[in-house]
Amino acid sequence: MSEHPSYHITTLADFLKVPEDRLAMCLVEFADWLEVTRRTDDLLRTLVPDYPADQPLVKAECFEWIDDGERNITMHLRDTNGNPAIDAHLPEEGEVTVKLHAPPTDPQPARFDTEPE
pTM to 2 decimals? Predict the structure, then answer.
């Protein structure tokens, strides 16, 4: 468990739980997370080109913000069967690491869910 406070954001009201003096940083990191999530969805669409354009492949239902003073993003994507698909760590500085897991054997187009660390 992290020694830093963390905030599980699933609704706009959840942003009110973030201390006022930390909200600006939370929103900066939320914008970073949205950008990474959109780019991940774009990338996955190259692998599943027939998936409906009006439905995101990445089903992002939550944003977990850890108030650690670092601007890092860690994502764990799972397919609709709950199988690990992609693990990625994007530090503010330094090397990005991405681990791709074996694709699902299900012939149906997969959706990918974000999971907090």
Answer: 0.74
